[in-house]
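User: Fold this one for me? It's Galactose-1-phosphate uridylyltransferase.
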Amino acid sequence: IFGKYKSLFTPKHQHLRYNPLRDSWVLVSAHRMKRPWKGQVEKPPEDNTPRHDPNNPLCPGSVRANGEVSKTAFPTECCRAPDREFDHPKLLCLFVFSKVMCFHPWSDITLPLMQPAEIRKVIDKWADLIVELGAEYTWVQIFENKGAMMGCSNPHPHCQVWASNFLPNEAALAERCQRDFLQKHGEPLLVQYARMEAQAQERVVVENEHWLVVVPYWATWPFQTLLLPRRHVLRLPDLTAQERDSLASIMKRLLTKYDNLFEVSFPYSMGWHGAPTGSHLQEDMSHWQLHAHYYPPLLRSATIRKFMVGYEMLANEQRDLTPEQVCFLLNMYKKRQ
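Assistant: Here's what I get for Galactose-1-phosphate uridylyltransferase.
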């Protein structure tokens, strides 16, 4: 890719981009892509996952460690961990509850390979869990780690749901920044941002009537994307039936683009951010806008990943491609059926 379209990746001047969701800056150093790579090379994902493994606790019909038999209806919550409480005179008392949710009965399938109707069921289940856990917990974090490169130890398609009685760091940052923006500008930050990106069409990866996927102006990870609704929505359960259908469609289209980029089942970590829940359900949360982050680690190919080390850890987050270059690459390929 980077050889064929070499002119697109000529050295660009280094510059900083502001991330309004985190009140921080990202250093864009696109000239780094001209450096020869002699670092670590990852093994490409193996394409030998069995459709059903009776020893896999996430497969339907298998027996889990606690003796329970995994359910056959999907999507399903197949594992759950009880509340964990940490109480100490010098520590905050925290409550964390976690679940694992399986998307599909087959282990050798991923979200981009599922049908939109199947993805829609996943979305509905996500919304149900926000309602169920959000009645008690301040924050409900839905996230998916896909691929061994992202630390996923089980190939079966699934996500995790963690609920806590506190706002985690990223949520607290997003809360402050979005609240400040609304007070200063009279409009939710991501509502305004989605409209501006839709008009500019510089970083739009895929869009439909209800949703927009962009490589955010402030992206840190190489092929990072941001999934945004076009109207003002606080939380997943607030989506209409039509918006949920559109969401299933655009998720499939986005994730297919990822898989096609390096012709590999693309690893990533993704997660939903919506307005806080629990006691916040009774508060004015109009500064919030529902959105999902996708953070893939791959940089140059299916076997070369981005490392956040050295300067990135000790000084400033840094990326090796401009978001506009990434958008071009993701849009190069037609949808592979």
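One thing worth pointing out: The radius of gyration is 20 Å.
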